[in-house]
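QUALITY CONTROL LOG
STEP: pairwise intake check
CHECKER ROLE: data steward
CRITERIA: each record must contain a sequence immediately followed by its structure tokens, with no blank fields

ENTRY 1 OF 2
RESULT FIELD BELOW
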Amino acid sequence: MRPSFIRVRAFQRVVLIGLVIFSAFVVAMPQQPQRSPSDTVREFYKAMREKRFREAFDLSIYKWAIDPLKPQEFEDLRPDFEKMAAVIPAAVNITGEQISGDAATVFVKVKEGETPEQSEPVSLMRAAGVWIIGDKENQEIVKKAGKQFFFNARIDTHHDEVQAMLTRISLAQLVYSQQHNGLFGDLATLIAAGLVPKDLEGTESTGYRFHINSVNGGKSWNAAAEPAQYRRTGKLSFYMDAAGVRSGDKGGSVLTRFAGEGTPEAAFHVLRGTLLFVYELSGTVGEVGLPQVVESTPAGVTVRYDVRWH
């Protein structure tokens, strides 16, 4: 048994020597320097300009909103990220930093176009020993929202933009009316007159479908806007007429278009029944108003249903 015992002892010595050599090697290896707050800000701006969005957001509190996204959800948000990247100037001048415990502030001078440089503070926090852009209060907000954070931010922006656009539409109708003996125009007419942007024909830039209707032979008008994708590009539906703007997530209007001439009124009530059935299927208590014709032309009929749910 003696030779076997010797072999065991020899093996133990080899293992111990190997561990000592490995430890010495690890100690001798140059340690990767920790990225400073200023370095973090520089790399964040650089990654955003180069459209390396995941790498950029990994350097910030928004990591908790990006990581849970599915590939398609990330691609849905890419146009928003590209808009962010487009406004980041090529020249970012960092003038200093202040560190207090696990919080830091980096001072950045940003030059946009012909305007003078403006100094802006960028807040950072240390998380797991690494500096990231943001602070604890906003980090909690991002964590709570999770992957919905950027979608919610997009929706809030769209809501503000839609209300601003409806105000512009109202002014456009006023101008058009003054130029056309008190008559009002529809969407195509106002676009052709250069009074509203052509973007309103699609949903790519606004996230909303806009409708502008000239009714009663042009003597009155109304407008509506609903999300292209509910809970992705918006939550509120908007309706505007001479009485003003109305919007809501628990109540609004459903606009539908029946193409062609001679649509029987019974079809309007069939659709109303379908909308009521949707409530029943989803277990929601709600009401659907009677159909109201807002526009009727040889090309078709536009009908509005006032809806509300609890």
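ENTRY 2 OF 2
RESULT FIELD BELOW
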Amino acid sequence: MPRYLSTKTNSVKTHFKTIIVSDVHLGTKGSKAKEIARFLKQYHCDNLILNGDIIDGWQLKKSGAWKRKHTRFFNRILKMIENHNTQVFYLRGNHDDFLDQILPLQIGNLSIQTDMIYESQGKKYFITHGDVFDSITTNLRWIAYLGDMGYTFLLWLNRVVNHYRFKRGLPYFSLSQYIKGKVKSAVSYVDQYETELAKMAKAKGCDGIICGHIHKAENRLIDGVHYLNSGDWVETMSALAEDHEGNWQLIYYSEINFKEIRDQEIGSFFSGKEEENESTIIPLRKVSFDSPKDDLNPPAFR
């Protein structure tokens, strides 16, 4: 059963064993490249898993544009490797399927591959972007492109609405997520998608499955299988994080209080305290996570 971090403490450590992000869609107007770079600057981890659709090759082929902020995202990852010796795993998605030409590839701390098995605290997770289970994307590519065009328009409308809300001091609102939640066919698709992935995890002898693809962050049990979805950095702006005790949690960018972080860093500077990975905290409004059984076995990747 999920348990919740006390809202009285309003804090969580910034150093994790593993952080997973997906669906950044660099090269598109809707990509929140600045936000995710800022997020990764605040959080440190031993393992960073980029679970597909990090670069949007589909849009770059059509009308997308590569900007300086998109390059800064990868600069941030290189700094994580250099400063914290972070192991980075880039898994292929459907929008960055151009990676098929070089898979698998390993350069230093960076590994580019199709999917992976992640073992930690006695639990085994199958990690995949999730598009392999989407028959539309796999078998009828032209229909997938049409759907992508409609989704691109929805994201444009989302930016217009939120620009209007920002000027009036209103918080961010994901219009596209709201519309998808109201459309019965979309809700049915998401339910079926999650159920099929849970079945796949069982078939592979895994305790859980970690995916992205549908832009819907989730952390729950489905028929005894731990289903985790990291969400996206176009609408939800969310990430999955595992602490060193094996607890998984969803972190939402909109719930991070950066003002308190700055005040905290200033206070630490004047008090002469150096930042430490294990003790640094970052304020959150609310965090939930599941707690797998404790085990002293070290994590393994393959």
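INTAKE CHECK: passed for both entries
DESCRIPTIVE NOTE, ENTRY 2: The chain has a mean pLDDT of 79.
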